[in-house]
Amino acid sequence: MTDADGNKYKTVIIGDNCWMAENMKTTSGSDGSRINRYCYDDDQEKCLLYGGLYDWEAAMNVCPDGWVLPEESDWLELEKNLEMSDEDLAGIGWRESGEIGDRLKSENYCSHLDCNPSGFEAIMGGYRDLAGQYFGEDAFAYFWAVSESGPNAWSRHVRNDYSGIYRSTYEKEKAFSVRCLKENKK
Questions:
Q1: If the chain, 186 residues long, is cut into consecutive pieces of 10 residues, what is the mean pLDDT of each piece?
Q2: What is the pTM of this model?
Q3: Cβ neighbours of 2 (radius 10 Å)
Q4: Measured between alpha carbons, how far is 108 from 124 in angstroms, rounded to an integer?
């Protein structure tokens, strides 16, 4: 996959879907417009290492043609394909079945030697809060979903020291990593 700036990304098939296996790092939207991309600690080199951090509005326009920001249902399907229990799928907050957090991480972040990575390769690029402060470098990875819940949007969160995955909504002005999903034309 190639973004609007010409950056090339690895992909991975999980279940019936093709996901990016790297975080987006583009500064251009799919329509060629400039978008808000933050780099951890405002250090451009960290965008090369972790990818960019995008508020939800920018995330809505970051995926190249033929790719989309995943829906909440796409995240749930990914988790089910990685053997999350039906009970956990319906849950909010930390969900632990199937050790999905470990299975989504890059091998560098697995909390035990036998973590069975899926190829998703989550990188712990942290996030940017509402006040413009950065948190969680090498500790957290947050990913947007296109799906809204009131004034917030759905997201996923994994930690380098935990095998579960967190499901919640956050303020759209926060800046998280973005993984795009190949659009399925049905």
A1: 93 94 94 94 96 97 95 96 93 92 78 70 95 96 96 95 93 97 78
A2: 0.93
A3: 10
A4: 10
